[in-house]
Amino acid sequence: MLEARRQNADTLRTPEWYKTATRWTQLTFVEDDPVRYDPAFWIDVFKRTKSNAVCLSAGGYIAFYPSDIPYHYVSQHLGDRDIFGALVDAARKLDMHVMARVDPHAIHADAAKAHPEWVMVNADGTPREHWAYPGIWVTNAYGEYNTVFMPEVVKEIVSKYDIDAIFANRWQGHGVDYSEDSARRFKNMFGHDLPVKADAGDPAWQAWLQWRRRVLTDIIAQWDDAVKAIKPHASFIPNMAGSSLMEFDLDVIKKHCPFLVVDHQGRRGVELGWSAGRNGKRIRATFPDRPVVLITSIGPEEEYRWKDAVTAPEEMQLWVNDGTAHGLYAWFTKFNGVVPDKRWVDPIADSFHLQAAVEPVLEATAPTAEIAVIDPSTTLRHWAPEERNNGEKHDLGFYHALVEARLPFELLSDQVLTRENLDRFKVIVLANAACLSDAQVEAIRQYVDRGGSIVGTFETSLRDENGKLRKNFGLSDVFGATLVSGPRGIVKNTYIALSGSHPLNEGYDGAERIMGGTRLIDVDVKGDAVTPFLYVPDFPDLPMEEVYPRQEPKGAGVVARETGKGGRAVYVPWNIGEIFWEVMAADHGRLIANAVRWALGKAPRITVEGPGILDLALRENAEGVALSMLNLTNPMMMKGPVRENYPLPAQTVSLEIPDGKSVSKAWLVLSDRAASFNVKDGRAEIAVDSIDRLEVLHVTWK
């Protein structure tokens, strides 16, 4: 602990302070905290969790310090106290980094009356009252509240207190603002009236998304400039969701955001535990070298907002630990300084200690994988935000199938399809990347020409970046398939039949056909492509006496080809990722895994054999590799509400040894001991006796 503090002290108040801000405590004050909360308890939490950074509520909706700015509401319980400043000082005495949280999404009645231009306007022209707390008002994120008032708040906090950053929550607005100012500025830029509803097919809606992106991007730059003018080492850090990078100008984020914060605090409904790590991959998909912090809530993340509740300890730990496995720094958040339920403290401390143990290895290595799933931002932008989860089903299905197949993979954003980024991978997966520009299509084609392999499905490249249908797939030559008709669906009771002997249809012994998709495209196969599966022409699903095929299988159910450039291409002309996510049929998961393995063209660089489900993450440097193995095995794995941890028995890791290298040491980081290994045919076989929650295998070369 003392050594960690010394390391932090070396980076305190320097431009690279964030590199040692790896374990965060966030305390979000409530209005009566000044007279009710126990600061000594929280200082003890800083120590027990080995936190080296803290995020504390400062101002915005309510100030928890004595503010001199007109209409910056100060807690009525503050009196002559300064609870924000006191905890800042306490954290600095522990050599912790400090970030001040502001929440600019609402204002009190006096401010709304004095400055009606600060208030968001509904479509009917009325000011928008807060949906959860009557008597306060939702702010207009795109106007002077965020461009005039909040910069003054930011400057006051940065001037008065010893902090490293301003962190903004709920700063991005809550839908379309129909004020005269927003309507005028929007029309001047794009020539449209403001859209009346979220409709991805409406040009006005698409234009509004672009306008919002520009306005919010400018706010990032303005607030960051205001911070740096006072404290050059400090930054403005906007809160983000896993998909937020598609909403902002990447050059501005690159310039102003030294690290990125993912606000996906826990599962909602039946969300899977690997969702935490996926958030980190989505950020790395655009900024692979930028530190990412994952916020985890100690309470449930449901629409019913039980903010003082505590999640089951194992579920909370799974969320933090999966983030750790994928290289995310840990951050827990507690709303309300008063703690009526302390059951979260020990689980959070355990997970933070786990992260502290693996940090030296993870920080010395960088994410690496042979496989990338393309994060289809260009496509998802055409979905309204509240419906985007439907557009992501294709990607989620592939994500889960690859986790089950124990194939380590990264994500790569279609916004950054550079040669350097693409050539990091041997296979790229386009799980219905329907919308791609000509430039994006060409970047993928050139990747294939350089020997890369590709797996694509359904509408991939069938539309341009604006969503307009092409006459044929942009990647038709790569897929070895041309469009005949479609897409069509929903179609029920569909099948694809095994055709010949091919690695893509292995593992279906005893079956002549397997389930097909529900959304279909009819294609012709051309050139040297083959069809390991053929489509079984439609036949009825009722009455039961009519449920039999009328025709022999014909038409492509799956297309595969050797590219002649050293790689392979697989195209599935139906919604395999989406339907696997919805139905979780084992045959579909096997087909996804078979397609990716065949496209890889060789034995995977690393394999893990043994019982159970593992979420794998591979990292490396010149000295060796680090394999994170997170235990997902649980009877509640597919539902999310994990109650108990089920340790895994022995696993065998097989690792390809680079030319000219040999194994120096295989070390189990969390078990803190050496692992036995033997070498055969250029691969090291390493025994991992058991995995509790997480294990990191660190293999070094000589």
UniProtKB/TrEMBL annotation:
Domain of life (superkingdom) = Bacteria
SUPFAM superfamilies, A to Z: (Trans)glycosidases (SSF51445), Class I glutamine amidotransferase-like (SSF52317)
Q: Do you know which InterPro entries this protein is assigned to?
A: Class_I_gatase-like, Divisome_Glycosyl_Hydrolase, GH, GHL6
Q: Which PANTHER family match?
A: GLYCOSYL HYDROLASE DIGH
Q: What is this protein called?
A: Uncharacterized protein
**Species classification:** Bacteria, Pseudomonadati, Pseudomonadota, Alphaproteobacteria, Hyphomicrobiales
